[in-house]
From TrEMBL:
SUPFAM superfamilies: NAD(P)-binding Rossmann-fold domains (SSF51735). This is Uncharacterized protein. Belongs to the short-chain dehydrogenases/reductases (SDR) family. InterPro entries: NAD(P)-bd_dom_sf, Sc_DH/Rdtase_CS, SDR_fam, SDR_oxidoreductase. It comes from Talaromyces rugulosus.
Length: 286
């Protein structure tokens, strides 16, 4: 079978970097992308990966031009991994709209624009696989994480709509929902904090930073294993061989617990309030 061609966003570290190494190890081709690639992706030079500078927070038109460049490298793309993202940390009252939009431009619109730019190519050949790296944050809220959490909730909705729209073209779509994995995601260099301006939140903000520092480096998830499982799902091989293609997939013990608890709590609420809920329907006559 001919090697697959992958396009992966956010390859400077973490999952993105691991995707590059593991895709190449399986004999496939990969286009590794990232912002400021000339400085941030130098560690991937010489690996066999094609490197493309791509800032997914750019406009839709600029992103489309970059995707067209990517398509020319190997003559096509079989698998897209929407992986790039970052965290803005702030309580809602201190989270100005500009910061929220900045987060959305990368965590939502970036993936949206890359996917839209690639869809005509996959639709024309009536095949392709698209994976979104979401988060357990797409299932639950966390204090000081409004920008990140809401972006991951939005991705869940985008993916569900996309799945129903493009299945008829032979294109498969899934979203992965990792818990805490030992990457650079929670490093203080990657989390965007702004100086707080409301005294009432001063101690709260300090506690949030202390929590982030305590978790960083102690995350339970192994990113090497996570990427291996994601590749298996996207290719239907290895640990995913013979299993139906999943619409979503939690990763890690904590990711599983978040999803299971949310489902169980929701079912309990529905059972307790069912009579109230259905009482809003029109009353059947006769």
């Amino acid at each position: 079978m001919a090697p697959l061609v992958w396009l992966v966003t956010g390859c400077s570290s973490g999952f993105g970097e691991q995707f590059v190494y593991q895709i190449l190890a399986r004999g496939d081709k990969v286009i590794a992308t990232g912002r400021n690639a000339a400085t941030k992706l130098t560690h991937l030079e010489g690996t066999g990966a094609a490197i493309l500078d791509l800032d997914i927070s750019l406009s839709a038109d600029e992103t489309a031009l970059k995707v067209e460049q990517a398509l020319q490298i190997y003559g096509g793309i079989d698998v897209l991994v929407n992986n790039a993202g970052y965290i803005e940390s702030s309580p809602i009252e201190e989270l100005v709209p500009e910061r929220l939009l900045r987060s959305y431009n990368t965590n939502i619109f970036g993936h949206y624009n890359v996917t839209r730019a690639l869809l005509p190519h996959m639709r024309e050949k009536r095949s392709g696989v698209i994976g979104f790296v979401g988060s357990q944050a797409g299932w639950m809220g966390d204090p000081s994480a409004t920008a990140y959490v809401s972006s991951k909730f939005a991705l869940e909705g985008i993916v569900e709509c996309l799945q129903k729209e493009i299945a008829m073209f032979g294109i498969q779509v899934t979203i992965f929902e990792p818990g805490y994995f030992r990457t650079q995601a929670l490093s203080q260099q990657n989390i965007q904090h702004e100086p707080g301006k409301i005294p009432a939140y001063e101690e709260f903000n300090k506690a949030v930073i202390q929590y982030e520092k305590a978790v960083y480096g102690n995350e339970p998830g192994d990113p090497v294993k996570a990427v291996s499982r994601m590749i298996d799902v996207l290719t239907g091989t290895g640990t995913a061989a013979g299993k139906p293609f999943p619409p979503r997939m939690p990763l890690g013990t904590d990711g599983l617990k978040v999803m299971r608890d949310k489902c169980q709590d929701t079912l309990k609420m529905l059972d307790e309030w069912e009579d109230f809920i259905v009482s809003t329907d029109f009353t059947k006559e006769g």
